[in-house]
Amino acid sequence: MRCPILLCHYMAQWHGYLKQILVDNGSEFTSSVFADWAAAHNIFVDYIERFNRSYRNEVLDCYLFNNLNEVNQLTEDWIKVYNTERPHDSLNDMTPVEYRQVA
Fold this sequence. Notes:
two-stranded parallel sheet, single chain
């Protein structure tokens, strides 16, 4: 559990503490120790498990890529649709772009 915290402290020596960390639902990130540490450093922790699953199911598992450029291009296209055209249940059926404009 201490590894992510130690890594963040190490990185902060050169770059300062982050304002936000995006993580999956791994036990190292869902513990109260990590949550307390993030709160003590004014770091907002956001969980992106759904994003990871959707990306894997809709991009990585659907194509055979010939090179990294293909992965990058398809990923850029998918993220654009994900953020601008696709409503999210967790955002009251708004796209992330719409939600940011309202917030």
